[in-house]
TrEMBL record:
Pfam families: DYW_deaminase (PF14432), E_motif (PF20431), Eplus_motif (PF20430), PPR (PF01535), PPR_1 (PF12854), PPR_2 (PF13041). GO terms for biological process: chloroplast RNA processing; RNA modification. PPR repeats lie at residues 65-99, 135-169, 235-265, 266-300, 301-336, 337-371. InterPro entries: DYW_dom, E2_motif, E_motif, PPR_At4g14850-like_plant, PPR_rpt, TPR-like_helical_dom_sf. Residues 481-574 form the DYW domain. Belongs to the PPR family. PCMP-H subfamily. Keywords: Repeat. The gene is 25483803. It comes from the Eukaryota. This is Organelle transcript processing protein, putative.
């Protein structure tokens, strides 16, 4: 009866002081010697994060069983005390206690949270030794650990051999690929549906994020239909993810429709919609939304101001951007960090106010990073300020001596000025340091399939037709005044060779393929590029949209460009 009374008292405990009273009574009346009581006391201490009390009790226990050890491993793991978690697990093995499917997930999650892949592999060996690799809970936790540690191949191997998979495991694997291979993430989502699972909101957020990374509009529309068809309400997390998805798939109007459908919005939702307008060069719409947010009683945070300043920078709203930067701390109590300073440096740099941008960097009181200096270096390239570019490069190379992008940007600046000796020096440095330039790629989505092009690419099965279409289009453009801008070929070669190189840029090939594969003039040609679109290709897109009467949407490394009737949404300001 004493034992039952002690357990009943434990379940009435509301704080650590009550637990200590029950513990003291158990010691007095002898029920502490009952392992069930001792384990329950230990569990309650851990639940209340009283790890010191738990450890004292554990150390005083006359007997322990696997449950006792598991409670301690779990307690240390939950509190982030990974060293003691590992040490306790090692003691389990040293005492020849067989770890079970309750203990192992705790220590595996500790490896996951610590990104400790070496210890994770050792635990995996223990799992194999004790024949627990087929246990659903253990295996699912290992998949999660490998996924969060970015060891995708090992996560996938375990996932593929699992006898049974629940929705959580599918979600973990889909989320893993969403970070590193968005296309495969969506393939897994298709498999999940074929297996008869109905995704919940958590799973759909990972799928939506994969669509956003891939920029796949057809998949975005399907995902939207799936969410509506399965009655999943647009809460703050899912709705915000969908705003970001549509924005990055090139359809800011659909993003706004989702935003307007959301019954509940928080500051992150508003900031996501402001950012969506920024991606698409709709600075005035971003500002209008910001004022609407204030009128709804939502206070802006640091993310809001990053989105707002970015929108101003990419829309030529220099004075407005500077006003918001000045008002951040004064009016809203948001202290600027390096991301806000980077946006303002970009804002001033694009406007040609390089001296002001440099002065801002020199007087700022937050730690500088490579993105800040890169923003100023990019402005130096646009405005041809080689003297300042050299100074900025020194700061950048100190921060990231092995970043090939810095060397490429500097060599491009000198190439633009015709200083080929300097270009050669930087290219030699790259060779010596075994650095490689990131190749430019352009993707286009046609009939639910994504095609990839590089400069001068002839790997596509319809390569002959693509080049014939490109030649035909260029002739039509030349008849209305198109002249290739060879300034954007940053190599010391003959003028005719420069023209040929411009004609086969990856975005031109993708657009030529789009003209063949998407014959309906009402359907836009959507392409994505991993680098910034060059000035000549930008002009090419504008003229194609006018001459061929086609809408073209380009997503480059900086923003979206919507080409219609000979004009771009960026207003030639990118």
């Amino acid at each position: 009866m004493a034992t039952e009374s002690c357990l009943r008292l434990l379940y009435t405990c509301r704080n650590i002081f009550h637990i200590r009273q029950v513990h003291a009574n158990a010691l007095i009346n002898g029920t502490f010697n009952n392992l069930i009581v001792a384990n329950k006391l230990l569990h309650f201490y851990v639940q209340h994060k009283a790890i010191n009390d738990a450890y004292y009790l554990f150390d005083e226990m006359p007997t322990r069983d696997p449950t006792t050890w598991s409670i301690m491993v779990g307690g240390f793991s939950k509190l982030g005390d990974y060293n003691n978690c590992y040490a306790t697990f090692r003691e389990i093995l040293r005492c020849n206690i067989t770890p079970d499917n309750y203990t192992l997930p705790f220590v595996i999650r500790a490896c996951r949270d610590r990104k400790d892949i070496q210890m994770g592999r050792m635990i995996h060996d223990v799992v194999l030794k004790y024949g627990l690799v087929l246990d659903h809970f253990v295996c699912a936790t290992l998949v999660d650990m490998y996924a969060k540690c970015a060891v995708i191949e090992d996560a996938r191997k375990l996932f593929d051999v699992m006898v049974s998979k629940d929705l959580v495991t599918w979600t973990v694997m889909i989320g893993c690929y969403a970070d590193y291979d968005a296309y495969e993430s969506l393939v897994l989502f298709d498999r999940l549906r074929e297996e008869g699972f109905v995704s919940d909101k958590v799973a759909m957020v990972t799928v939506v994020n994969a669509c956003a990374k891939l920029g796949a509009m057809h998949r975005a529309r399907f995902v939207n239909e799936y969410i509506c068809g399965n009655g999943l309400s647009l809460d703050v997390i899912l709705g915000t993810a969908m705003i970001d998805m549509y924005a990055k798939c090139g359809c800011v109007d659909s993003a706004r429709e989702v935003f307007d459908r959301m019954k509940e919005k928080n500051v992150i939702s508003w900031s996501a919609m402001i950012a969506a307008y920024g991606y698409h060069g709709k600075g005035k719409e971003a500002l209008d939304l910001f004022h609407m947010m204030l009128s709804c009683g939502i206070s802006p945070n640091r993310i809001t101001f990053v989105s707002l300043l970015y929108a101003c920078s990419h829309s030529g709203l220099t004075d407005e951007g500077l006003h918001f930067f000045d008002s951040m701390w004064r009016d809203y109590g948001v202290r600027p960090d390096v991301k806000h300073y980077t946006c303002v440096v970009d804002l001033l740099g694009r406007a040609g106010r390089l001296d002001e941008a440099l002065k801002l960097i020199e007087t700022m009181n937050v730690e500088k990073d490579e993105r800040l200096w890169s923003a100023l270096l990019g402005a130096c390239r646009v405005h041809g300020n080689m003297e300042l570019a050299g100074k900025v490069a020194e700061s950048l190379l100190e921060l990231q001596p092995k970043n090939p992008g810095i060397y490429v940007l500097l060599s491009n600046i000198y190439a633009k000025a015709g200083k080929w000796e300097k270009v050669g020096e930087f290219r030699d440095l790259m060779t010596q340091r075994k650095l490689k330039k990131v190749p430019g790629w352009t993707w286009i989505e046609v009939d639910n399939k994504t095609y990839q092009f590089s400069v001068g690419d002839r790997s596509h099965p319809q390569s002959k037709e693509i080049y014939e279409m490109l030649t035909s289009v260029i002739k039509k453009l030349e008849m209305v005044g198109y002249v290739p801008d060879t300034e954007f070929v940053l190599q010391d070669v003959e003028e005719e060779v420069k023209k040929e190189m411009l004609y086969t840029h990856s975005e031109k090939l993708a657009i030529a393929f789009g003209l063949i594969a998407i014959p309906n003039k009402g359907d836009p040609i959507r392409i994505s590029k991993n680098l910034r679109v060059c000035g000549d290709c930008h002009t090419f897109c504008k003229m194609v949209s006018d001459v061929m009467k086609r809408s073209i949407i380009v997503r480059d490394a900086n923003r979206f460009h919507h080409f219609n009737e000979g004009a771009c949404s960026c207003g030639d300001y990118w």
